[in-house]
């Protein structure tokens, strides 16, 4: 499995409840694509949300996010960490 | 303390060794600004690096990153998580 950081750039005003609901929508179906969403971090002021996940490839991450109603705007495959 | 995700957008080809060295340079001086860098995730292909930290404000994060030689290009204050 690979690790990814995807970015949503247009979620201004996102609340804790809305982010949790979105995350749970991903978790509910992620097994169907062998994806594992780890964490989500949001800034309601800039409207950015960052999601860390593991999965087979970028398209699998996007399929889950799209079906849950929040496709990512960009994604990065994380191959170095510190 | 507040939580932040800062983004470096121009680190193509970053290696595991280079990211670890950069992270350690932050850790070595972060106490001077009451900053705590938690994790860094990098994609050498897109050249993006994401740093999660805690600190008093965005400027304190930037001062540490600048002194360590890698100022961020953007930063987001994380107030919602899931």
Automatic annotation (TrEMBL), chains A, B:
<dbReference type="InterPro" id="IPR042557">
    <property type="entry name" value="SCO4226"/>
</dbReference>
<dbReference type="InterPro" id="IPR025336">
    <property type="entry name" value="SCO4226-like"/>
</dbReference>
<dbReference type="Pfam" id="PF14026">
    <property type="entry name" value="SCO4226-like"/>
</dbReference>
<protein>
    <recommendedName>
        <fullName>Gualylate cyclase</fullName>
    </recommendedName>
</protein>
């Amino acid at each position: 499995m690979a690790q990814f950081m995807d970015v949503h750039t247009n979620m201004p005003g996102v609340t804790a409840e809305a982010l949790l609901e979105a995350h749970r929508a991903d978790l509910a179906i992620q097994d169907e694509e062998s994806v594992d969403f780890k964490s989500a971090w949001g800034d309601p002021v800039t409207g950015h949300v960052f999601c860390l996940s593991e999965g087979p490839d970028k398209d699998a991450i996007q399929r889950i996010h799209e079906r849950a109603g929040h496709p990512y705007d960009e994604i990065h495959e994380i191959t170095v960490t510190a």
